[in-house]
Amino acid sequence: MYSAGHRPAADAGAASEAAGQVRLADRVVPIAAVREHPERYTSLFGRARSEVGHAVCLCRTDQLVRLVIRCRAGRYHLANWPAGGQQHAPGCPWFRSPSAMSGRSAYAEAITVGEDGTSIRLSTPLTVRGATAAPSDTPAPPAASAGSVTTARRAMGLLALLHYLWESAQLNVWHPRDGRRSWRDCRELLNEQAGDCRVNRLELADALWVVPAFQRAQAERINAAWERFLGRLANFGKVRRRGLVLGELRAVEATDYGVRIRLAHQRAPLFASAQLMDRVRRSYPSAFGAQATQDGRRQVALCLVERSRRGYPTVVDLAAMLTTSSYLPADSSYEAAMADALAAAGRAFHKPLHYDGTEVFPDFVLVDVDPETYVEVWGVRGRESYEMRKRAKQSFYRESGRTLLEWDVREPMPVLARS
Ligand SMILES: [Zn+2]
Hints:
alpha+beta
């Protein structure tokens, strides 16, 4: 029943005067107002749904982009038409990188979009039966393989879920209009996405704790909410409930029993075994490299957590991602430097996220030029896997016929401003 057009990603030239507004039935209203106070628009939502069947985003001049009207527990909200995110103009809150530029395309069977939201199958159970936890395996870092075949994966690992959430919240998209992004901004966008998702049939909003930005005045309220979250991770006999914690790593400290993981904005630490932490460091080398914490870079982690026998929140698996200080993901610190430089040059771009797949994508895609320009950072050399990946990418670029902006990190950065 859904049919999305086949236009490539919207170009900047098509950005509309009415950008930032949506049409609900016969009225045009600001997106920000609808998102912030959906309850004020209940009757309009109802009318749009029964009379038109959908809402219309006015971000483009050359076409009207439809939005799905969803209703959960009496609360209306707007969502992207399935696979329709790339039809919106870059800078529109519903713009998404095209699925051809995302590891998401390999997970068609793990993500089901229906009338009442998105259902995700996670490969790791959130309810565990049996006495001992079998720690799930963190997927190995993507192997560099040329011409890898896209195979549909039936369930997502933690990194894929982290990338999915980041991408759904549009945190891999940068528009100069947005300005710097704080953790508070990220959390708001992530929670909005979580509210629309179920994971392994559980409401993601209940299973996921996105660390709240620290506010002294709210500290007690936030602690109480954290305790309630932990309370849901109770062990009933041999059944253990697990939860997901999404936050920014601040420090990993050795203790007598393993490691203590401190998250930014959060007083209460998490705990993990030294063995798990070693495995995680090996699996996510760019997030834990020597450069990872320099120049304001950040390490974002999605943790699978359960309560230990004594009640401590214990990490049983963890996926990590390097980001810039504005939480734009990067696969290396050179890429992070490029993302910062692109933002400083006032460019609009997105970062294709590979999930845990091996597909070949450009490092960045500039969307403020038509046609889009691909950006490639040629970094660490010498490793055979790297050389293979570089060859795969070069043939991908030859075939795509796109303009390529390259930076060989031994050279100064090229001019990035729009000409
Ligand atoms: Zn739009």
